[in-house]
């Protein structure tokens, strides 16, 4: 009996968007209009690449970025939830699938000492160049028309499950915890016995409830959460059964 917990990161584990939080490092804590307006739908990673160039051009260094990122607040109840999962790892495998980047997630989890809770983190690879600029790349290529160019979370989840199965690991239930529109694709992949946990008032909850009225609603159960304590209560029930 093992359960797989799949977490989004921005607005799920942390209560903010890590990519927009970094703007606090910019001169006057804001981006010039031309840069801000250069975003094109589906091309967020490229946009963030330009933001990182701007920060680098303005002399923003790695240590300042790290200091800023580690002040991001966790979502209500999340510290308790991650502590609980960490104490019950024999029941739970735990992964992050996020459109953030490796550098930000690594900094935030390590600063709070939660990196050991997660077995794997799937996100856009990022690194500092020899000139001290943060660079970010696409996570992978895919053919899904519903997802941003750089990341299809369904593909990530499916490949992870296939790899686990090859090693003889299968899960009693998958619990998917997220908030955004790009979490819908993997939620549609979940089976009847699985559960989607969308954050209350965010895009994923709205998209799932719109689908409920359509010919192809999600197959899995849905449990909405507003505090991570709601998630913890559910997980406690799971391991009692």
TrEMBL record:
Pfam family, one: Put_Phosphatase
Coiled-coil zones: none
CC cofactor: Mg(2+)
Residue intervals passing through the bilayer: none
MF annotations from Gene Ontology: metal ion binding; phosphatase activity
Key words, A-Z: Hydrolase, Magnesium, Metal-binding
InterPro entries from the UniProt entry: HAD-like_sf, HAD_hydro_PyrdxlP_Pase-like, HAD_sf, Pase_PHOSPHO-typ
Amino-acid positions noted as binding substrate in the UniProt annotation, renumbered to this chain: 19, 99
Active site: 8 (nucleophile), 10 (proton donor)
Chain sites annotated for binding Mg(2+): 8, 10, 179
Protein family per UniProt: Belongs to the HAD-like hydrolase superfamily. PHOSPHO family.
Listed name of the protein: PHOP2 phosphatase
């Amino acid at each position: 009996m093992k359960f797989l917990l799949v977490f989004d990161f921005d607005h799920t584990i942390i209560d903010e968007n890590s990519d927009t939080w970094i703007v606090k490092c910019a001169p006057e804590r804001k981006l010039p209009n031309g840069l801000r307006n250069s975003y094109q739908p589906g091309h967020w990673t490229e946009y963030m690449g330009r933001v990182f160039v701007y920060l680098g051009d303005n002399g923003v260094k790695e240590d300042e970025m790290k200091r800023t990122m580690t002040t991001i607040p966790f979502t209500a109840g999340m510290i308790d939830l991650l502590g609980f999962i960490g104490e019950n790892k024999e029941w739970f495998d735990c992964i992050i699938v996020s459109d953030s980047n490796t550098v930000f997630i690594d900094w935030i989890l390590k600063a709070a000492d939660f990196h050991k809770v997660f077995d794997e983190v799937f996100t856009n690879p990022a690194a500092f160049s020899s000139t001290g600029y943060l660079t970010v790349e696409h996570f992978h290529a895919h053919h899904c028309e519903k997802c941003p160019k750089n990341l299809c979370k369904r593909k990530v989840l499916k490949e992870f499950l296939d790899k686990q199965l090859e090693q003889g690991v299968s899960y009693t239930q998958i619990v998917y915890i997220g908030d955004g529109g790009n979490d819908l694709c993997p939620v549609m992949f979940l089976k009847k016995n699985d559960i989607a946990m969308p954050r209350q008032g965010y895009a994923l909850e709205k998209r799932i409830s719109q689908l409920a009225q359509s010919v192809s609603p999600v197959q899995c159960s849905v449990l909405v959460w507003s505090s991570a304590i709601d998630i913890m209560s559910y997980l406690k029930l799971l391991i009692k059964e």
